[in-house]
Specification:
The complex is a heterodimer of chains A (333) and B (255).
Chain A: H1 2-22, H2 27-52, H3 60-76, H4 82-101, H5 109-129, H6 131-134, E1 140-141, E2 146-147, E3 150-151, H7 155-178, H8 180-190, H9 192-197, H10 202-228, E4 230-231, H11 238-251, H12 256-280, H13 284-305, H14 310-325
Helix pairs in contact in A: 1-7, 2-7, 2-8, 2-10, 2-11, 2-12, 3-4, 3-5, 3-10, 4-10, 7-8, 7-10, 8-10, 11-12, 12-13, 12-14
Chain B: E1 2-11, E2 15-25, E3 30-34, H1 41-49, E4 57-66, E5 69-70, H2 76-81, E6 84-87, H3 99-106, H4 113-126, H5 128-132, H6 143-155, E7 161-165, H7 173-190, E8 193-198, H8 201-207, E9 210-215, E10 218-224, H9 225-230, H10 232-239, H11 244-252
Parallel strand pairs in B: 3-8, 3-9, 6-7, 7-8
Antiparallel strand pairs in B: 1-2, 1-4, 4-5, 9-10
The chains are: A mainly alpha (333), B alpha/beta (255).
């Protein structure tokens, strides 16, 4: 398939390009790139839950927090090596996520949204109370890791680590989508009763989706904390959870490209707006509400004109490129 | 093959829908469950297939036996594994998935990929209309095509028994005949047991060998198709043979 090869070559080229270019970037741009990469990894999980399985969660940031705090605790307090600590943090988050996913057996749509809202509140409250784990309002430090004998203290090196995790996450994401479990996800999303009729264990499928989504959140949260070298509970508030929801919707539901493009959008657009605002005013503090307003406006306008998200726009561009570079008639959407 | 004994079903803990019904479906035969709206036909199928729970219903008493094994209250997942496939009223396709993907979902309980591919080819050959539209999302199919797809999808799991609910729903009379012809053909060639729920009593009795008439949660009449066709009560209320209905229609019509 021309289209498949096009995608694969494109993806490999992009990853190679990011790995090389990032090493020559200044701190500011590298910080943005790292944030996009970690957010994309986290968004892949939420997108599998929301896009592929059709279940909403407004607690994704809280789950990232579980991963961030538990990995910091495992490394600093229990002395675990970084790699197992990150994976274990992912697993812990996954277990917590599955527990909070239990209401999905009975609840759908807005009701499920309310249940996950409760999860966000409960987890956030637990963060505030558990000073031994989170440092409470003061937050706690997190170290950049040494893994397999390689130190990732340096920001440029750390980016490569984040990229490696994101690539692994993306490959896993694609494989899961094509697997039996992935088909069960879609079946449950499209018509859960029909899925049940086909012999899909709907409940187990839903819980598996929560488990996967929160595993991604946990690992991404662990990396996020290590990248910042400091974990504060405010980084995992409700508004961040909603931001992730927006990210996935803007990027494109049920699409890996959507998770990546959405992450780039959510990180870059506010920065670009800042740059523009700075051209007119030197007082960014005063302009902050305007920035938020404009950002919201862009999101709404965007959804009106491209309701299927950035991934759809990207697909169209890709199709156009295929038709013009390939030998003409490739009619695959 | 399937025996249902004195089955009682209640919804939401209070509403009694089935009030102790018993019937039997022998292996490789087609049995029809007849009756008016709200008689409890669909509920009976759901009680057998394990689809009752997601509807808020439960088996209050009675037994369901599959080849002598008690399967009362089994989940749909387990019933599919035991070879009982339910085609619910309204078809319940995956509208956004293509015809081919819908069929593949039907084989969800199957593990052998090569066999799934073979089955897919076989059923697409059997349903040429579906083969033509294999890449079309199921939501875009016509009513008749959707019904064929729902049946074909159920067959992808190699069932030993199919519970078929109201296959004629929303189809033109011509299409209904076509669908019933195909159902009979499949039933005979595959040696499958069918439990058919149908409001079109006349057609149902043409392809089924035995029938039960359900009224208000109880079985009123049962017998072979030929017996039922001769039954006075059935003729009066369901077949309209004695002319009562035609007369009423004439009176109701303007002028």
């Amino acid at each position: 398939m021309l289209a498949d090869r096009f995608d694969r070559i494109g993806a490999v080229a992009l990853i190679a390009c990011l790995a090389v270019v990032s090493q020559f970037m200044g701190d500011y741009h590298l910080a943005l790139l790292t944030q996009i990469t970690v957010f994309a990894l986290s968004a892949m999980g939420l997108n599998m839950l929301l896009g592929n399985t059709g279940m909403i969660s407004i607690a994704h940031a809280a789950f990232m927090g579980v991963g961030a705090f538990s990995s910091a605790y495992l490394i600093q307090n229990l002395g675990l090596p970084a790699l197992p600590a990150i994976l274990l943090a992912g697993l812990i988050t996954s277990v917590v996520g599955m527990v909070f996913g239990l209401p999905s057996l009975r609840l759908k749509g807005v009701y499920l949204a309310m249940a996950s809202f409760a999860a966000q509140i409960i987890l956030y409250w637990a963060f505030e109370q558990s000073r031994w784990l989170t440092g409470g309002q003061d937050g706690r430090f997190a170290q950049r890791p040494v893994m397999l004998g390689i130190s990732f203290m340096d920001s440029h090196r750390f980016y490569l680590l984040a990229l490696a995790f994101a690539v692994l996450g993306a490959v896993a994401n694609l494989n899961i989508e094509r697997s039996r479990l992935g088909r069960a996800f879609n079946a449950v999303r499209d018509r859960s009763q029909a899925a049940e009729m086909m012999g899909v264990n709907v409940f187990r499928t839903k819980i598996a989706s929560f488990g996967l989504a929160t595993f991604y959140a946990g690992v991404a949260g662990a990396l996020f904390g290590q990248y910042l070298e400091f974990v504060a509970i405010q980084a995992f508030s409700l508004s961040v959870s909603i931001q992730f929801l927006a990210l996935v919707i803007i990027g494109g539901l049920g699409s890996l490209a959507g998770s990546v493009l959405g992450a780039a959008f959510i990180v870059l657009v506010p920065e670009i707006l800042d740059t523009i605002i700075l051209m007119f005013s030197h007082n960014t503090g005063e302009m902050a509400p305007i920035r938020l307003g404009v950002f919201g406006l862009i999101v709404v306008v965007f959804l009106l004109f491209e309701p299927q998200g950035l991934a759809r726009a990207w697909n169209r561009t890709r199709q156009w490129a295929l038709n013009h570079t390939g030998k003409g008639s490739q009619t695959r959407s | 093959m399937l025996q249902v004994q004195d089955l009682r079903v209640i919804y939401n803990r209070v509403v009694r829908v089935l009030d102790g019904i018993s019937f039997e479906v022998p292996a490789g035969r087609m049995v029809a469950l007849l009756g008016a709206n709200g008689a409890g036909k669909s509920t009976t199928l759901k009680a057998v297939s394990g689809m009752l729970r997601s509807d808020g219903g439960a088996v209050a008493s009675g037994r369901v036996l599959l080849e002598g094994r008690t399967v009362t209250g089994y989940s749909a997942v387990r019933m599919v594994r035991l070879g009982v496939m339910h085609v619910m009223e309204g078809r319940f396709l995956f509208p956004d998935l293509t015809v081919k993907e819908n069929l593949e979902m039907g084989a969800y309980s199957q593990k052998d990929r090569r066999r799934i591919a073979k089955d897919l080819a076989q059923w697409l050959e059997f349903f040429p209309r579906l083969a033509e539209r294999r890449s079309t999302p199921a939501g875009y199919l016509s009513g008749g095509e959707q019904q064929m797809l729902a049946i074909a999808r159920a067959l992808m799991s190699h069932p030993r028994m199919v519970l078929l609910d109201e296959p004629s729903m929303g189809l033109s009379p011509l299409l209904v005949r076509e669908v019933f012809r195909i159902i009979r053909q499949i039933q005979q060639s595959q040696g499958l047991a069918f439990l058919l729920v149908e409001q079109n009593v006349k057609l149902a009795l043409e392809i089924a060998s035995y029938g039960y008439v359900l009224e208000q949660g109880c079985i009123r009449i049962e017998g072979t198709s030929d017996e039922l066709k001769q039954n006075k009560h059935l003729q009066d209320f369901y077949l309209g043979i004695n002319g009562n209905e035609t007369v009423r229609c004439k009176q109701a019509a303007p002028q």
